[in-house]
């Protein structure tokens, strides 16, 4: 529809330009021929030459317009693919939240007299579940995909969104590591009061990590939805 409209406009412009140039050419032949015989004058284009030049200009315009439209279409298609890839990270973040929330709930069920050993097995199970998600591979793949060809709509927004996801994931991993779930009893066969207090603190830290991750995840999803609306 847009092409047909532009073609119609071009046809009208050619017709109008031809009409006026024809009368200008005729006036020049009738009125200025005597003047040009006495003085040095530039020869104007014939009607056929004018039409040829005008056609060339219009053809060049449509070629450039076509290239621009093709590039815009290409960038839009890559943006559609990009939002799908970001959505994959979004789904992985939801799964990550499920696993870290399960870990927190599991630790909170322990009573004080059950805190005699470390949370080694709980942490190992959690890490196994997280490793199976292969989130880092998805991040690296998407980062390379963006860098290989920057011809994509909202390139900076995609980069910012990916950075936001990386920061979110780095924060929750750091918070979990700082809880030292696998830390054993210090120099004794059985846990003393300091060991138990340390494990209580670890449980609180994991719960706080879940809450902060949930906040960060909602902020990421808000940014994702904002970009998704721009593209759609």
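Q: What amino acid sequence fits the structure above?
A:
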């Amino acid at each position: 529809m847009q092409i047909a409209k532009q073609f119609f406009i071009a046809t009208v412009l050619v017709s109008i330009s031809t009409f006026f140039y024809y009368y200008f050419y005729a006036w020049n032949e009738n009125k200025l021929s005597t003047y040009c015989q006495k003085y040095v004058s530039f020869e104007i284009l014939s009607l056929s030459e004018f039409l040829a030049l005008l056609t060339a200009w219009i053809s060049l315009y449509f070629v450039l317009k076509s290239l621009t439209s093709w590039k815009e279409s290409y960038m839009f298609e890559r943006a559609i693919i990009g939002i799908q890839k970001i959505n994959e990270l979004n789904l992985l973040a939801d799964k990550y939240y499920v696993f870290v929330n399960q870990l927190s709930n599991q630790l909170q069920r322990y009573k004080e007299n059950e805190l005699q050993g470390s949370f080694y097995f709980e942490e190992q199970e959690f890490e196994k579940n997280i490793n199976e998600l292969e989130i880092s591979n998805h991040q690296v793949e998407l980062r390379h995909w963006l860098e290989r060809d920057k011809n994509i709509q909202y390139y900076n927004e995609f980069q910012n969104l990916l950075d936001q996801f990386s920061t979110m994931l780095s924060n929750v991993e750091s918070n979990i590591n700082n809880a030292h779930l696998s830390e054993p009893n210090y120099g004794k066969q059985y846990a003393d009061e300091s060991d138990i207090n340390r494990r209580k603190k670890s449980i609180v830290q994991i719960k706080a990590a879940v809450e902060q991750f949930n906040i960060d995840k909602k902020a990421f999803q808000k940014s994702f939805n904002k970009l998704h609306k721009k593209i759609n």
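Q: And what stands out in the fold?
A: The mean pLDDT is 83.
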